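Q: What residues go here?
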């Protein structure tokens, strides 16, 4: 079976780190590159985090630093959830994996332009890099096979009652991507909140006994602690890996076509993904929105992904 070619655009971030882990060693995915954006922490920190994860796992995938601030609005980070480094918890050895000299936006443009239109863009952070690439070179847009993002919600946000973090952090970028006309699959909080990483899940994965499972456990123990402090949950929702799990096995998520508008004009609801769940507006659907997830199957996919790494 031919692998799905992807560029993973992320802002590591504990859940981004797990997404990298699953994507980098899957027999269903060809990870062409990791592009990094500011989001969960500053760009200086998120690009280090991406390289640390790759180095720890022995993943030979290039990492490119991209945009350090949103297209228009002021920068925001999620230090209350992901800590001072953006990846608090694990202790990594000295970093030797180098950052690519090319800017992430340039890499996205060049790679898409040279492609046969068979590359999926996966975004698990603010969509700044992809939107900037679209604005810089509109000819890439028809080259994008599809966009799969973790972001938004058709119910409640997690930064404001209306908005989810990845969207509100750069709603203008999300607007550019959602109005690009490319196929979009949106994994929002409505499903990612259904895969809470309870302590028994952490224990289950840790028992695998390899470097990937140790990283997972170290990440999740910190992540679950801050999620409980902020939201009161006993387990942290593993948002970002849902994108990769769906690419590995589409049956894990139930999708519903909806017309989606990104609110970039209001104050109280800035950053909301307005999803016409019932089709009241009579407009054509612009995205396939995740509405349910098979949590047991999701954790099986995560476990299988961790087991693909060596014992060393």
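A:
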């Amino acid at each position: 079976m031919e692998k799905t070619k992807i560029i993973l655009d992320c802002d590591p971030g504990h859940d981004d780190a797990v997404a990298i882990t699953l994507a980098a060693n899957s027999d269903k995915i060809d990870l062409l590159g990791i592009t990094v954006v500011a989001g969960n922490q500053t760009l200086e920190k998120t690009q280090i985090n991406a390289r640390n994860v790759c180095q720890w796992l022995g993943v030979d995938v290039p990492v490119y630093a991209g945009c350090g601030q949103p297209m228009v609005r002021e920068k925001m980070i999620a230090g209350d959830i992901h800590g001072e480094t953006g990846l608090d918890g694990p202790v990594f050895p000295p970093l030797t994996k180098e950052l690519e000299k090319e800017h992430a936006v340039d890499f996205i443009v060049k790679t898409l332009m040279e492609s046969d239109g068979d590359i999926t863009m996966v975004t698990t952070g603010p969509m700044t890099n992809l939107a900037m690439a679209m604005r810089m070179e509109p000819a890439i847009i028809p080259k994008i096979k599809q966009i799969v993002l973790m972001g938004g919600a058709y119910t409640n946000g997690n930064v404001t009652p209306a908005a989810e973090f990845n969207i509100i952090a750069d709603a203008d970028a999300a607007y550019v991507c959602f109005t690009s006309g490319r196929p979009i699959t949106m994994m929002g909080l409505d499903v990612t909140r259904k895969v809470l990483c309870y302590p028994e899940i952490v224990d289950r994965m840790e028992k695998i006994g390899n470097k990937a499972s140790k990283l997972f456990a170290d990440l999740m123990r910190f992540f679950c602690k801050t999620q409980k402090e902020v939201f009161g949950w006993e387990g942290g929702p593993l948002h970002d890996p849902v994108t990769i799990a769906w690419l590995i096995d589409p049956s894990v998520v139930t999708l519903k076509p909806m017309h989606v508008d990104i609110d970039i004009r209001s104050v109280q609801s800035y950053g909301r993904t307005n999803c016409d769940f019932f089709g009241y507006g009579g407009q054509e659907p612009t995205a396939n929105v995740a509405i349910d997830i098979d949590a047991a199957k999701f954790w099986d996919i995560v476990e299988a992904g961790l087991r693909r790494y060596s014992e060393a």
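A: Context that may help when evaluating the design: The mean pLDDT is 94. The chain has one domain: 4-195+238-291.
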